[in-house]
Amino acid sequence: MTTLLHPYDVTQESDMQSPLDFNRRSRLKHVDRTFKAEIINIISLTEMEKLFQVRIMDDYYRSKFSYLPGQFVMLELPGFGEIPISISSSSSNKGFIELCIRKMGSVTTMLHKARRGAKVGIRGPFGTHFPMEKMHGHNVLLIAGGLGLAPLRAPIFNVIENRSNFNQVDILYGTKSPKNMLFNYQYEEWNRIADINLQVIVEHGADSWTGPVGMITSLLDDVTILPDDTFAIICGPPIMFKFVCERLTDDGIPMHRMFVSLERRMHCGMGKCCRCNIGSTYTCIDGPVFDYWTVMNLKEAI
Amino acid sequence: MLHKTINKSEFRKLVDLLMENEEVIAPKQIGSDIKGKAIHQYLPVSTFDEIDLDYEITQYSAKTYFLPYCENLSTCTFDDDDWTQNISYRLQPRILLGLHACDINALLKLDKVMTRDSFPSPYYVSRRKNTFIVGIDHEPCEGGFCQAVGADVVTHGFDLFLTDLGDRYFVAINSDRGFNVLSRVRIKNITQADTKAYLEARQALAPVFETPYMHNLPNLLDIEFESPVWEKWGAKCLSCGSCAMVCPTCYCYGVGERISMDCSSSYKEKQLYSCNLLDFASVSGGHNFRAKKETRLKYRYYHQHRGFSETYEEPLCVGCNRCGRVCLAGINPPEIIKDLQLEGIR
Amino acid sequence: MKINLDVDVHHLTRVEGHGNIHVKVKNGKLLEARWDVVETPRYFEVMLKGKHYSSAAPLTARICGICSFSHTLASLRATEAAFGVEIPEAAAILRLLAKHGETLQSHALHLFFLAAPDFLDVPSAIPLMESHPEVVAIALRLKGLGNKICDVVGGRQTHPVSLQVGGVAAMPTGLPDLPPVLEEALEDLASTVELFKTFQLPDFVRETEFVSLRANGDGYPFIGSDLISTDGVLKAEADYLAMTNEYVDGNNTSKWCRLSRDSFAVGALARLNNNYAQLRPEAQAVAGELGLAPVNHNPFMNNVAQLVECVHIAHDSLDLIDQLADMKSAPTMVEVKYRAGEGVSAVEAPRGILYHHYKYNKDGKITKANCVIPTTQNNANIHNDMRALVEQFATEKGMTNERLELLCSMLVRAYDPCISCSVH
Amino acid sequence: MKYLGIDPIKPKIAVFDFTSCEGCELQLANKEDTLAGFLNAVEIVTFREISSAASDDYDIAFIEGAISRSDEITRLMDIRKKAKVLVALGSCACFGGVNRMKNAYDLNQANREVYGKIAKETLPVRSVKEIVPVDLEIHGCPVSKAEVERIVQHLVWDIPYTQPVYPVCFECKQRYATCSFDLGQLCLGPITRGGCGAPCPVGGLSCWGCRGPSEDPNYEEFFRIANEYGYGDDEIEERLNFFGGFEGVR
User: Fold this and answer.
1) Which 3 state secondary structure label does DSSP give D95?
2) Which of A38, D136, D150, D207 is deepest in the core (most CB within 10 A)?
3) Which candidate from B34, B235, B263 shows the least CB-CB separation from D182?
4) Residue B344 banded pLDDT, cuts 50, 70, 90
5) How many domains does chain B have?
6) Is the Cβ pair D26, C117 closer than 8 Å?
7) Chain A residue numbers touching B249 (CB-CB < 8 A)
């Protein structure tokens, strides 16, 4: 047999042989290779949500893995599936990342059964981030609804760790009921140690609840907003950030200073599967963090 | 680009030679429909006589040889609490014979998504580079509108490209491996008569029927986002995804994983999906970002004709109209575009 | 004699469908030995009325989940007979190959999963995975092969789709995958023969009339031909009613049948008893090794006859695939023009002869349908065998309810009944 | 076998058959290459068709067949009481299956026709969910073993299972089949739930709808298309009624 065509081995390309680094998007790499990671701790937050502390097992990749507040990873349970999860921990943390996960579909239900020591797969980080450095020297308003506190927690850490870079910082958090409240063990610390004005509100109160009851927008009545000097980050269900952003627009904050994180179905994280597309925009690479002006211009975004 | 001519009998020898060595995929008639119209598909062939280079259009596009309907992305083997992930890419070369210009243009568009910018796909790259492509000119096919989207002519993206000059082919050579392969048989340098014959042949390939006017389509789409045209056509949509399956450029997909019954191994599988399917944009928890048929249909057209244009300055559509032919409900781009234009001037 | 035995099996296990066994022996005297079929009736013959001819085969396939290919073939042939359709040669070969796939699949299921546990003293094949892994491996390979043949030729393992009025939809592309597996199966069958040599079949004989298709010079019969019995009855296919003589019994939802005697038997043993000479030499050799020669009147030998048929089928399938290799572009379908008419078809299902009979009006719609199922034909014989079996064994020393229950159950299982099929 | 340090529960499974051909049960014993793993993942405590062992202590009951006699109703209600999860296996259990066509005929007359003077008891055919609550349905005539395996895995790990929502056409195209309508066959593929892998159209027979409706099927357009291709309402009706899953959609 004569050889007419020579087999081409993509793995021999130099980019493929260099270490895996998802922050270098344009390089040819093993896009479906995961970082094997160990679940080092599991913290039960509510009936439905758990916080998973996950550590990349390979020392080299762990030291190389870096991300910015607002980015997400694809978390894989081999044999069960892969899901996009925003990173909840501080981006200065090099040891492990924290992922707050609600029990919903088959992958998350399976994950909720996992014990410490289980090995999962991680790809990423993917997506855009909150431009924290732009907010230096300004007031920051961090607003979350429900599970939205999970992605918001990364910028909160960033603010706390760089407290002197920011002026007045407010966190507004609303949930359906008191028992849905996430990370309540940290509120005291945020309030007192970090000098952040934290306010929580619930839609439906409970006997033990002494705080305010109502929609999250009502908390805005007590916040001083300096239109020229305030940045806002809003995470939550579309209906919630729509109302909040409209209210903040009324209060005079320019749309390009409001940032939201969009949730969409995702199967790749790399601008290929199109599941997260809004029009021609890929939520996974052009987002998930968008400024509100961009969102307004995305047809069918909200 | 180099040009040569090759006798048809020599070309047959060349194909025989290729078939001896590698897998050859070529248009093949697999039957006829109830109206007696021939049905062609790109299929592996083992003899030259199985190939029908005179075909009008294949039912399915050639994309599945680059983006298979189902593709194994990785496998895992489990050992107690641990697992090992394995990934492999295509290594075997193969020949794709008889592609029309629109299908090669489709690959060029896929190249833009799959081989550049963000996260080039090694799966695609390995399939693309392991495929030797021989294109061929043809008469325009009924219902096609490749000219309107500028996909009727192709200048790269193939190894060899043939134009039928009766007893011989005029061959455009676009790669060194194409040149090397040709050197195995007798080829001739082109003469002035060849060039003349080629130009005449090309001229004869101009379409004889009306194709849609697609100028300014991206802006028109933007303006007509809320147009009742979408409701009209959306009401017909069966949400079956057939259009995306036969489309030479639709690349949307889903990923799922399967684990063996004994939990000893698992694999991650990519399955091409379609934005017209009901759950394309539904998220866990139940919210569906595009729950209505018309929003899904609209999205498909926006992605093809507006979104892709914004990013790459050209539409994703190559005008083959396979989607229009396969759609039982008769949803097809020429008519929808016409409707939008009428709507725009109303 | 103070022998009192009482067996009451409600829904016999390891058979297809629902049947009960009642045995009562008091003071050594047989009071009752009954085989009752209590399956829920489905009225397929009524549902067929008014249906378009293209619905007949897909509908009747659903009479039985085990012998759906046989039903499909019987149905297609009856329709083709009514319309005067001659199918192409390649289609006939493909259909026989599909038939072989079903027989292999069904026999393997019966021999290993339904019958063998009794001989190996386990309640099912599941514990055999631990105790006899090599036996289970063989069983799965043989059954898998049968299923694979069905899949390749019929498009599915159960309720085929490619077998259609007029022939077979297309020449299957998967044929070349089969010969290597069939070759391997020959070895597995040889091991199975050795296994069966170790099985102790109950020593029981009752003079029986055996009914089957008759070989018409083209080998061991499976699809369509004259009807024959070991008592010397010979009828044409279309004259099936004279062969079956169905009647309704008060205790059963299945009908019963009779011919020269009170009852008769169909199935692998009947086929072999009538057509031994047409078996391939390799199969005859196996029959000899296992002590099976025609005419054998021990119903438990039906198990052995099935194994012999598996050997025949494996060899024959290789031949059929060989023939098909030269017919790659041969037509597999003819155009069908429906007309008013009537057609009868007889097909050997794994467990015996199966008849479909349709009348069509000029619109190609069914006006009358009749299906006679192998197990329907066997039920009366099972019942009679059971009486004789109990009479013979009840007086055996140390007979217990459990032992008698097992013997009766094994008897019924030996017939490999398709009970829900018999109550269609 | 553990997975990620988690022990799977090995559910006790019982399989019961009612008015049916027992073909779906038979599928449980098919797919021979993974059968050992399948039988290992669960504990089969009752499965009359292949086992003489039986127990009333089970977690998951698979019900095959439609309900068409009073003793079946009693038996089914008893099973429902004992089972934690009740799964309807196959189109007969889910919709009544082909048996449902019987309901269009006069049952007394049907009895006379088949059994003459000795009539047998029979009721109009009903699906399982028309008698008792059903937790999970596995569609198909017969069911696909690959799908059964996936569902059993979800049951074994106790995680939610989502059925495919798309119609058969989608998978039919993924297997390079030619549209049955183009080959002159009326096909229910556009309105029937996928997940089967489209074996019928690939094998040369159009989809007859054994898996019942897909999510949000476009009936109106489908009927228009079928008429346009020359199929009369009677023909469409006969096909829709074949497996019982489309009762009342027209």
Assistant:
1) helix
2) D207
3) B34
4) low
5) 2
6) no
7) none
Is the CB of D36 less than 8 angstroms away from the CB of B235?
Answer: no
The β-bridge relationship of strands B168-173 and B160-164 is: antiparallel
Contacts of B256 in chain A (CB under 8 A): 81
Q: CA angle, C270 as apex, C266 and C276 as ends, to 5°?
A: 155
**What Rg value do the Cα atoms of chain C yield, rounded?**
21
**Does residue B92 fall inside a structural domain?**
yes
pLDDT band at A302; cut points 50, 70, 90: low
Chain centre distance of CA A254: 23
| Mean predicted lDDT score pLDDT of chain B | 92
Q: Which of B208, B243, B277 is the last residue of a domain?
A: B208
Whether B177 and B221 map to the same domain: the answer is no
Q: Which domains does chain C have, with CATH numbers?
A: 44-422 (1.10.645.10)
Shared domain check, B321 and B181: no
Verify whether the Cβ–Cβ distance A105 to D160 is below 8 Å: yes
Say if domain A132-296 classifies as CATH 3.40.50.80.
Answer: yes
What's the rounded mean pLDDT across residues D216-235?
96
Q: Are residues B240 and B285 in the same domain?
A: yes
pLDDT of the residue at D211? 97
Residues B110 and B193 occupy one common structural domain? yes
CATH of A13-126, one of 2.160.20.10, 2.40.30.10, 3.20.20.140, 2.60.40.10: 2.40.30.10
SS3 label, residue C110: helix
Domain that holds residue B307: 217-344
CB–CB contact D161 A119 (8 Å): no
**Contact (CB<8Å) B303/A279:** yes
B83 found inside a domain:
no
Residue of B339 and D129 predicted with greater confidence: D129
- A-chain CB neighbours of B263 within 8 Å are 79
What domains does chain D contain, in order, with CATH numbers?
12-157 (3.40.50.700), 168-240 (no CATH)
Residue B219 has pLDDT above 60, yes or no: yes
pLDDT value of position C236: 96
Residue B146 belongs to some domain of the structure: yes
| Number of inter-chain CB pairs under 8 A, A vs D | 30
Q: Interface partners of B (3+ CB pairs, < 8 Å)?
A: A, D
- On the 0-12 / 13-18 / 19+ scale of CB atoms within 10 A, C40 is buried
Which of A273-287, B231-245, D133-147 has the least mean pLDDT?
A273-287
Do the chains contact at D218 and B328, CB–CB below 8 Å? no
Longest alpha-carbon distance in chain A = 84
Of D1, D179, D214, nearest to B326 by CB-CB distance is D179
| Nearest by CB: D178 against B59, B78, B264 | B59
Closest CB from D176, D182, D215 relative to B60 = D176
* Whether C42 contacts chain D with CB within 8 A: yes
Instruction: Provide the pLDDT for residue C1.
Output: 59
Q: Which chain C residue has the Cα nearest residue D34?
A: C140
C376 contact residues in D (CB cutoff 8 A): none
Sign of the four-CA dihedral C414, C420, C421, C422: positive
pLDDT value of position D1:
65
Spatial distance between the Cα atoms of B185 and B194, rounded to a whole number of angstroms:
19
If asked whether residues B281 and B200 sit together in one domain, one would say no
The 3 state secondary structure assigned to B192-212 is: HHHHHHHHHHHHCCCCCCCCC
Domain with CATH 2.40.30.10 in chain A: 13-126
| Of A152-166, B298-312, C346-360, minimum mean pLDDT range | B298-312
Nearest to D30 among C47, C141, C157 (CB): C157
pLDDT tens per residue, range C244-259: 999 988 778 888 999 9
Identify which of A16, A108, A279 has the shortest CB distance to residue B307. A279
Closest chain C C-alpha to D85 CA, distance in angstroms: 23
Judge if B198 and B268 occupy the same domain. Answer: no
- B78 found inside a domain: no
Nearest-angstrom CA–CA distance, D107 and D129: 22
Q: Are residues B196 and B111 both part of a single domain? A: yes
Q: Which phi and psi angles does B314 have, rounded to 5°?
A: -160, 155
B102, B144: one domain: yes
